Amino acid sequence: MPTTYDLGPLPGGPWHQYANAAGQAYYYNTTTQATTYSIPSGFEDHATDTWARDSSKTWVQWNNQRTGRATWMDPNPPPPQSYLDMPVIQADIDMLTAVPESRENQFRKPVSAILSWIFPVAEGYQVTQEVGTQNTVPDFTVFKVSRVAIGNAHNYEIMMVESKKRDGAWGSTMDQAVNHFEETSNESKKVYGMVHIGLEVAFYRYDVGRVDDLSGRLHLVNHAIEVTNWLVWIKQNPLPVI
To answer: CA 202, CA 36: separation in Å to the nearest integer?
Structure first.
């Protein structure tokens, strides 16, 4: 029998809540014996709902005080201080720590999530990832949209990222990154850079052929606050693009 967890009933109806071993909540109708992973109609969460920890459970669970719906994820987490406070990113990094021989695409997953968290689409940024195997383009590029007085908006390069799995050579990876910096489409030939190997990163400023090391090598776990602060600093101190 697969492992199931009894989360309790939804009040005033035939629905009972369970969770499977993967943490997915599902709902069982005691009248029709139907099972669904969708929240039953009328029990959806509202922004004004309040939640409380359920002390009767041997696992961590929060219950919606209006509907009785249960969740294992904190519905009101404190403001994140770094990307490690984001469960999806923490899960990726935990996996890489446990399986350091993971493939390169697995090492790029948390980097993609970190960049998208700092540079969100809602603020006019776009994080693109190169899916090919050639080294002719950066592995990631962060763009920022800018609107001119007359004409269409345009995306400019804010930061280029070269990303490798664990045990990648730092020197050759840096050489590839500089090659990309030199090809920036910014008219000013200025752009920020980031080199990522395994669980280490470093930040750079490229200025018309000159490369300045801004941060030194930082560990994504041991220096999470510093990595976060550097990304925020780059966001708050854009280089001229023309």
So the answer is: 46
